[in-house]
Amino acid sequence: MITGTFLDEISHDIPSANWGRLEWAKDFESMASAGIDTVILIRAGYRDRCAFHSDVLRKRHGYLIVQDDLVELFLDLAQTHGMTFWFGTYDSGEHWVRGEHQAEIDVNLAFTEEFAQRYGDHPALGGWYISHEIDAFDDGVMRVYESLARHLKGLRDLPILISPYPRGAKQFDRPFTLEEHSQHWSRIFERIEGLVDVVAFQDGQVLYSELPDYLATNADLSRRHGITSWSNVESFDRDVHLKFPPIAWPKLRYKIEAARAAQVDKLITFEYSHFMSPNSMFPSAAGLHRMYMEWKRGEERRG
After folding, report:
1. Domain limits at 182?
2. Percent of the residues in the chain that have a pLDDT greater than 70, as a whole number
3. Residue 212: which pLDDT band, with cuts at 50, 70 and 90?
4. 162, 182, 201, 300: which has the fewest C-beta neighbours closer than 10 Å?
5. 179-199 burial, b if ≥16 CB within 10 A, otherwise e?
6. Domain boundary among 232, 254, 274
7. Which contiguous run of DSSP H or E holds residue 7?
8. Whole-number Å distance between alpha carbons of 237 and 234
9. How far, in Å, CA of 96 to CA of 117, rounded?
10. Are 299 and 213 contained in the same domain?
11. What DSSP line would sit under 29-72, residue for residue?
């Protein structure tokens, strides 16, 4: 079943739920009842927005936009519900996309150090998430991964997660073949082996007919390099023109069952609160939650 979820309130492609402490507390209760034991902050900052009052980012953006200290709130709620919290790094939205990889590294070294000084001893903190997503080998981003991974392990020796994506037909006019995908990710894993502990490939970019082969390939490649294989079972729908609604239940079930068949170690989703929660701003998410929970209970009865 899905036992982990990203938390996304610093987004650039889905709307804010405009939740405060009461709404988040209610949703963490819902996550716990659904079997979620792992929560991953997808990014603690993006461009001029941040999930806590960061002095490091305020030097970059004097008008830094901060709703609340969501990091402290998420850590405390995770502890209350016996969940593990993974901290997501900063995405400048600028440096690394322009090839200025050292600048991206430098701001993240300072930003994650600031986080560690404030929250690094919190008992719910159980992992790091490097938020820079890629689909192909890129030497500059490899240097970002390598530098940040070593730095994060030095701050607190916890597992490190990435959640990349295949260059699939749903997102690219010239998608990779499975062989090309395999070649790129063999090179990537050779570089990050021993630094990154967990990979959770996004599953929404490839055609449903291709997904089982990609899942099997991803699991095999990661294990060959000693990296734990999860699957990021996207709970939003890439197949409709609206960007992005909750996914249709039959599609979500298909992806869960395909990931099971590939024998990945854990299923996480992007992301429960927007697309699967009964508290979501999208009414259809409540229906998805109901159908998922009914199926989950049936699966658990069957053992």
Report:
1. 135-232
2. 100
3. very high
4. 300
5. eebbebbeebbebbeebbbbb
6. 232
7. strand 2-7
8. 8
9. 25
10. no
11. HHHHHTT--EEEES-SEETTEESS--HHHHHH-TT-EE-S-HHH
